[in-house]
Amino acid sequence: MSRILLLVELKGGNDGLNTVIPYADPLYRELRPEIGIARERVLQIDEHVGLHARLEPLMEAWKTGDLAIVQGVGYPDPNRSHFRSIEIWDTASSSSQILSKGWVARAFEHAALPTGDGVDTIVIDSNALPLMGPELRTVVMQDARTFLQQAPLPRDDLVEDGGNPALHHLLAVRRGLNAAADGLRNRLRAASSPAHDYADSPFGQQLDVATRLITGGASVVAVKIALAGFDTHANQPPTHEMLLAALAWGLATFRYNMIAAGRWEDVLVLTYSEFGRRARQNASLGTDHGSAAPHFVMGGRVRGGLHGGHPSLADLRDGDLRHTVDFRDVYSAIARSCWDRSVGFGQRAVQKLNLVAL
Amino acid sequence: MVALGRRYFVGGVAALGTTALWPVRPGLAAAGMGFDEARHLLSRAAFGATPAEIRTVATMDRDAAVDRLLATWHSNALTAPPDWLNGTPDEQARELSTWWVEEILATDQPLVERMTLFWHNHFTSSLDKVHDAAMLFRQNALFRREAFGNFARLLKAVARDPAMLIYLDGADSVAGQPNENFARELLELFTLGEGRYSEADVRNAARAFTGWTIDRKTGAFMNRVERHDGGEKSFLGRAGHFDGNDILDILLEQPRTAELVCEKLWREFVSLAPDAAEIERLAEVLRGGGYEMKPVLKAMFLSPAFRDPANRGGLIKSPIDLLLGSVHLLGLPVPDKTPIARMMQNLGQLPFDPPNVRGWPGGESWITTYTLLLRQQYLRRMIEATTVASMDSAMKRPVEGRSLRNAGSDVELTATLTGIEADELMRTLLPRQPIDAVDTGGAPGAVVAAAMLDPVYQLK
User: Model's pTM, two decimal places?
Assistant: First the structure.
């Protein structure tokens, strides 16, 4: 059993409270008198919470049980720096631990992956950290069209770097590149267009490439893409709505394409973000950096529904939500169901989440 | 690609496995600092250097050469500001970045532009958020005025800078509901560094800055006292009715602030691995000298580590280094700066469009599989551009945003590189010996092309 993970980073810190909305809680209106989502604009999914109206494209997946929503995902002693917190998420470290290896690479420690000229993970974004590590051969491409046009570099050299770290890095990149690029280029050239078109936006283009790679039969373990702009400190509502709509349309189209290609059971989609946002709105009609937030898991074998408890609005810590699910438990569940890898990411006790039917 | 001929560059193929520095040329090293050290200094303090420029510096002693780089003849840019009155916001954004590209290519004070870029990267603001090109233009002028002026003065000016007040939401921060964005990045990125302060320090600093905003009519800084939280605050172990000035003064008293700036300078100019003892020494020069920048820059450029030949080629060229340095070196005319700005953007460094508030991480992150492929492609494009004459003039075609038909694969040399021997061409283009074999017996244009496509050309 092996599935491809489509990892979707929501850059900037997505406001979880306006994504999966505790519409029935009067404290929600109190904390967010102006930027709170009106009850009639909430797609109720149970008697407590509902989705933002702009997530409507995901409702079909929700109703067919292809969408799991993990609530209150975070970690103890949350860090509110964008950079530090995304590093924590990307490396699956604890708040006080600095790791340089990505969590997906960590999941493959001591695993016997095939060697040679293949590619294990593909990043169609500038942040490759979750996949970085000697375990995995990663190719970063921001623009598939340019990537395809490029001629391969000469493959040779057993040159030593003379202890120069910059040169060492450069040569390592070049070697990996020469090996990986050829195979990938051929695969993408041969791949047919997705059955359903994506939006002509950077996010849509990333999904388009991801779809072609998967339907073209690339034997990768993960593809990473990203949607940016979630750092909504001021005048949040119009920006956030637009982002949620782009996310929902993109993921719904991806689902259609995977179903059309008969691959929906072979993939898993996971969203993540450095943090949620402060429970109380700020004076600029925005929200400051917070802590826990909900995340989406989608796929043909996902156990749809709500997982984890919604954090209490009555029991905040420094104005922030307390997490109910540790993000490393989500990663453990993903690693188990995607790659049959059993990893706890240094946690003493792994809380088992049944996100995927075996 | 260059065809490999009979004679390979000495040390090229023969030295595979022992990538090495250039052998010393005693004849040239006798007077002044010598060609290779002069090249090293200019590769770090300017944007590319021609053989003539290197030779001039090579005859000077180190002290005089560094003094000359630190001399400022004017505090304003040479390039006339863009005409903001016309044009859509998108056009204004393009004008702003191409204006700076033009200034970097035109300047007679390359280190001033380097430091302006350094401050832009340290005190980041993005057009994407600020939405006001003229405001960012004024912020850029501030960075240029203080390029190697005074860090304390610059920090205080940045805290009141309208573009910064918008970028980090300070303009909207009011008593009772302070916006923490500026205060957090001030502590994390501009002065102390992550882990050197508490969440309470962030919150109290945010309170202290409330009221600093901009006049929406004029776009200028204003202090609206009625919005200021005048209450008592504790900050970094001290208590008082602090305002923004007090917070900045307290931060400037912290030794960590000067260390953080010096660490960044080190990574930018010396090597990817800061030396703790040297950082401490430089930080003392900076703080002890009342945050004047010239003494610390001079101390850094004259430090043994900077001059250590092992550090030559130890930094990775930024996209701006690579692209604008190559244009300068090849003497390429670039009447329209838009294609080159787009190349910079694709390689990950478009001015006024940093990836986030931390700026460009630089170093090894410049080179990924993707950007390395793209860098090679752009260099090929520049080589081709030297060989194709434009339709309407005898001038060589400027750098194009697309491939050119009927283009040659050898560089057609202009005045900057003509009449230079192969050995000196190689020493000009590369900080150390090439990785791939370069046939130095071929035409000089082929030598230049081969050197530019060697991996070592990505280093400085």
Answer: 0.74
Burial degree of B83 (CB within 10 A; 0-12, 13-18, 19+): exposed
Backbone φ and ψ of B56, nearest 5°: -60, -45
Do B335 and B399 lie in one domain? The reply is yes
- The reply to whether B295 and B321 lie within a common domain is no
Q: Considering only CA atoms, which of B138, B125, B211 is closest in space to residue B168?
A: B125
Q: How confident is the model at residue A115 (pLDDT cuts 50, 70, 90)?
A: low
DSSP codes of every residue in B234-256: EETTEEE---HHHHHHHHHHSHH
Residue in B closest to A281 by C-alpha: B177
* For chain A, domain boundaries: 4-146+182-339
Q: pLDDT, tens digit, for every residue of B244-260?
A: 999 999 999 999 999 99
How many domains does chain B divide into? 2
* CB within 8 Å of chain A, chain B residues 102-161: none
CATH of the domain spanning A4-146+182-339: 3.40.720
Residues 188-247 of B with CB under 8 A from A: 188, 194, 199
Is B324 found in the same domain as B450?
A: yes
Q: Cα separation of B22 and B12, whole Å? A: 11
Regarding whether B395 and B350 lie in a shared domain, the answer is yes
pLDDT classification of B417: cutoffs 50, 70, 90: very high
Range of the domain at B446: 314-458
Residue B384 domain-assigned (yes or no): yes
Q: How many other CB atoms sit within 10 Å of the CB of residue B391?
A: 6
B316 touches chain A (CB under 8 A): yes
B438 and B322 belong to one structural domain = yes
How confident is the model over A224-255, as pLDDT tens digits?
999 999 999 999 999 999 999 999 999 999 99
